[in-house]
Amino acid sequence: MQVTIKHGSVEECYQIACLIPEFAGDSYPLNEYENRLKGKRHSILIAEIDGQPAGFKIGYESDKSGVFYSWMGGVIPQFRKNRLATQLAEKQEEIAKENGFEKIEFKTRNYLKPMLIFALQRGFDIIGVEPRNESYQNRIILRKQLR
């Protein structure tokens, strides 16, 4: 099994996101990806296994000074348990650090427990909560200092 992490396009990320069940019914349209990145330093990473798209991670320069915002990422279910999420996160953090960012932030939803656990295991701290009508939809805000 050959794993490759490469730079990709918005279109590639969108196509992979459409294959991830956690985004089903709540995915962003393609133009939202483009709008988020417009005029901002950004990173688009694609994970492939044996040349087949398997996951992605996309992030961009935050409005907060020195902060890189890790907006979206995921791995297609059949490719999970291959450490792709970890490899994508490590590469994104490396790129952010190389580009002078001091911190990396992201939000996840309260019901996405595996993502919360993943973040905590990677050294992120919970720094806030954006409440929603239903607690399972609360947004959990996480931050990691890039050293």
What would you say this structure looks like, in words?
- The radius of gyration is 15 Å and the shape is globular.
- The termini are far apart.
- It is an alpha+beta fold and 147 residues long.
- A hairpin with an 8-residue loop joins strand 6 and strand 7.
- The protein has 4 helices and 7 strands; from the N terminus they run E-H-H-E-E-E-H-E-H-E-E.
- A 7-stranded mixed sheet has the order 1-2-3-4-5-7-6, with helices on both faces.
- It has helices at residues 10-17, 30-37, 84-98, 113-121; strands at residues 3-7, 42-49, 52-61, 67-75, 103-109, 125-130, 139-145.
What gross morphology would you assign?
Answer: globular
Distance between the amino and carboxyl termini = 32 Å
Number of helices: 4
Query: Percent of residues in helical segments?
Result: 25-40%
> Which band does the percent of strand residues land in?
35-45%
- The count of DSSP E runs of length 2 or more, i.e. the number of strands, is 7
> What letter string, H or E per element, gives the SSE order?
EHHEEEHEHEE
Largest sheet: 7 strands, mixed
Give the low-pLDDT segments.
none
What strand order characterises the main sheet?
1-2-3-4-5-7-6
- Structural class computed from helices and strand pairing: alpha+beta
Rg is 15 Å
In round numbers, the mean pLDDT is 94
